[in-house]
Amino acid sequence: MLRHDMAAVDDVRKWVDRIVVGLDLCPFAQDPLVHGRVRFEESRATSLEGIMIELVEEMALLSDPDAEADTTLLIVPTLLGDFDTFLDAIALAEEVIEQTGKTGIFQLAHFHPNYRFEGTESDDPGNRTNQSPHPILHILRWSDVRRAMHDNPGVGLIPERNLALLRGLPTLPSLEGPLDTDFRRAICTDKFWDRHTQRIFEAHGEAIEDCVLQNREEVIGLMEFIEKNQIRSYLEIGVWTGRLTGLLHREFSFNRVAAADEGYAETKGLTINLPADVEFFRGDSASAEFEAWREKLGHIDLVFIDGNHTYPGVCRDFAINRRYPHRFLAFHDITGSNRWTSGVKKFWDGLDEGHKWEIIRPHAELGLEHSTMGIGIWSGTVEAEDAP
Ligand SMILES: C[S@@+](CC[C@H](N)C(=O)[O-])C[C@H]1O[C@@H](n2cnc3c(N)ncnc32)[C@H](O)[C@@H]1O
């Protein structure tokens, strides 16, 4: 059907790029995609039988030892618009797989614009994992599925993480317009506060781990803010082991980067690693020495305050840093979800001047639909290019 204009294939490609891979809903999708080993096939069938014939043809193609693809997305834009009809077609396809002796060789995954998992409400955002722009029969080799499961022992946690992300995200990336910078991909190998960090935190009352002590989703939001607002200089107060400063500088190549920390991570046997060009103040951000250093630093576009989280501590950092030239002051942990960070929430909620923006996203790596951290961005004078 309309094979020549390829509109449905384009829609599905965009959906795979921006949603499936873009939100990392399926960590196994990217590899065959970048190696061109996914067949995006638009069905030409005019009947259900025709679709089944195409299914058999695709399985034959993927069975070839010299097959150029690992998997097929059989896109059926016109015949299976009704979800119940689609489910009937899937049931028939499963029978065809069995009757052709392909059970245990091929597996079907399925996607549909009105996809609804059994037992869920139709408007449950969790259904979005399987809501594609057109009905799709996704044909996978069982051997590939088994290998992926073996290579990724955390595979069982993926649905929970996806559900948390989709239920917690206010909007999904748009399929229209130019592609946003893929910050998720850029930071996919950086270690953030995940379930392992959380276990350490719960056992010791402190997250003693050399990683970015942030919610990955919120750092993606911060990076979007940095890009939109053309932040070219950055100061982080409270860097822990320096992972966030290093990551942001790597991705944005700031003209100027500075950091301040009293070195608590080192007392826990960890090392602070900052890029060589970072200007580093070692000491208390509330000290006269810090003020002298900060004065010399001059203008900074974005100051990220993530040091002393007590209410008086944040108030002091705010009072000091607002005096020096800057565009934005940002505060970490504005949701104040625990007793160590409640002072930041108190400060942020009470801040009733200037312009405020919030980056509060689900902590999906913990399987949570809500944020345990949150970033607040403040400006006393200018409005940001765009709300984060
Ligand atoms: C939660 S960690 C920072 C996490 C880091 N921003 C990240 O994203 O990975 C808090 C850091 O603040 C530092 N800190 C706490 N109070 C401080 C103060 N008054 N002056 C300077 N650093 C401080 C600690 O040494 C610690 O490294």
Task: Explain how this protein is built.
With 388 residues, this protein is an alpha/beta fold. It folds into 2 domains: 7-168, no CATH class; 183-379, Rossmann fold. The protein contains 14 helices and 11 strands. It has helices at residues 7-21, 30-34, 48-63, 83-99, 142-151, 158-168, 183-186, 195-204, 216-228, 243-252, 264-267, 288-297, 311-322, 342-350, and strands at residues 38-42, 71-75, 106-111, 136-141, 233-237, 256-261, 279-282, 300-305, 326-332, 355-359, 375-379. A 7-stranded mixed β-sheet has the order 7-6-5-8-9-11-10, sandwiched between helices. A 4-stranded mixed β-sheet has the order 1-2-4-3, sandwiched between helices. Helix 11 (264-267) links the parallel strand 6 (256-261) and strand 7 (279-282). The protein is elongated and about 80 Å long. Bound molecules: S-adenosylmethionine. S-adenosylmethionine is lined by residues 212-214, 236, 238-240, 243-244, 260-262, 264-265, 284-286, 306-308.
